[in-house]
């Protein structure tokens, strides 16, 4: 996953992706970008209120290199939430369902775009979808004001359940005559954030079960809470869920929802250099290999998405030891380190092709 690169540096990025041969590319499908103005018929992807051009180009680039896409529906347009920021839910969740229907219709593999001014070939089918991102953190989802006595987890889950169901229903309705599409909900942060409105992933999942949320797959982001911890190390905080104790999440998921599959839709280690808080370059490669081995051994995990392809720009901030953004790329930053490959690049490429940690 590297949205900034696939959109801003498409040609260069897809050349590198061709070398890596990833089995999935996760991309945020921003509702507020595609629908900057309110469409008159939100279920029709050809409505002039929609602008899919950036995503059409991306989909065709991925298709040319045989990389399956995973779209994450996220970000509410101001016209749908009363003029508020992107992380507020829509006032009418039917609008979100209509958008999901329109998106899944356009990327159903059945849309003949020969008359579309932006594309001249058949757009590929997108089978994998997710709803929102880390809704257990207020930064990504602002739950509506909760009644007195209601926990943050319950309020966030109640709001998110409506988002989840809207995306699930929209995608399945659009591709109902086909088979194989999956919609994941959750995409939870591994822990609650200090000094911020949030809740842990286990509390959030338990609260989600008390709603009417329905989904095909559950998704989680089991980043290590301490940057230098090995992937298999259990966290100190009991309510935090990393790869080191991922079994507590799958056990709870099994008890609440049955044998649902699990997607790891974001995982990463930053490196030092360039970031003071990262692991060594060889350490990142070793931890990528170890994380892959844990996920592959687990009977419920079907996906592991690495975040990012290339480091975000490295610029020093006076008074701070670390760098802004993420330096978890398989490649260094282009401007300051000429985009050199880190050792983890070769490990990822080997794992994607051979699927064997022993050989990589």
Q: Give the low-confidence spans.
A: none
- Strand proportion, as a percent range, falls in 5-15%
**Order of the strands making up the biggest sheet:** 1-2-3-4-5-6-7
Report how far the terminal alpha carbons are from each other. 21 Å
Radius of gyration: 20 Å
List the total number of helices: 12
Question: What can you tell me about this protein's structure?
Answer:
By secondary structure, this protein is of the alpha/beta class. It is 36% helix and 11% strand. It contains 12 helices and 7 strands. Strands 1-2-3-4-5-6-7 form a 7-stranded parallel sheet. The protein is globular, with a radius of gyration of 20 Å.
Brief sketch in words of this structure:
By secondary structure, the chain is of the alpha/beta class. 36% of the residues lie in helices and 11% in strands.
